[in-house]
Amino acid sequence: MVDSPHEGFRARLVASLVGYLSHPDDDLRLTAVEALLMSTWDPAWTPALVVDAGGAAPIVACLSDEVDQVRNAAVQLVAILVRKGEAGLLIEAGAGKALEKLCKDPDPLIRRRAAGALEALDSGPCT
């Protein structure tokens, strides 16, 4: 149920961004995943916006992106979603294996963030 016109707009925007996560253009994927990450700063943001838009699988796919900035933003977004209670959904989407692979990423920042997200995923609530 949509509480206000702003909620409807927010949901449509998130759904649009989720759609761009699998776009062949590197810049569009990067813009979309960074925008989704920045949207988590909004006090009105909830994981349901991403979940309802079918965002789990496309975000997990971004963990294997060829562009390191996309992987970096995706790993941060996964960590936030896990900490907000979506561990089960992300596990179903394959986040565990993708994060394990990122623990060997050439970028040390991505490796550190992947290890933190994996730890959060492993200690997340059972679903």
**DSSP helical segment count:** 7
| Number of E-type strands | 0
**Considering the protein shown, what is the CATH homologous superfamily?**
Leucine-rich Repeat Variant
Write down the secondary-structure element order. Answer: HHHHHHH
Enter the CATH topology name: Leucine-rich Repeat Variant
CATH architecture: Alpha Horseshoe
Helix content percent band: over 70%
Number of domains: 1
Based on CA atoms alone, the radius of gyration comes out at 14 Å
Provide the descriptors you would attach to this structure in a database record.
mainly alpha, Leucine-rich Repeat Variant, 7 helices, 72% helix
Concise structural overview:
The protein has one domain: Alpha Horseshoe (Leucine-rich Repeat Variant), CATH 1.25.10.10. It is built from seven helices and no strands.
Write the layout of secondary structure elements.
Layout: H1 5-20, H2 26-39, H3 47-52, H4 56-62, H5 68-92, H6 95-102, H7 108-122
Write a structural description.
The structure is a single chain. With 127 residues, the protein is mainly α. It has a single domain, classed as Leucine-rich Repeat Variant. 72% of the residues lie in helices and 0% in strands. The longest helix is centred in the middle third of the chain and has 25 residues, at 68-92. It is globular, with a radius of gyration of 14 Å. The two termini are 24 Å apart. The mean pLDDT is 91.
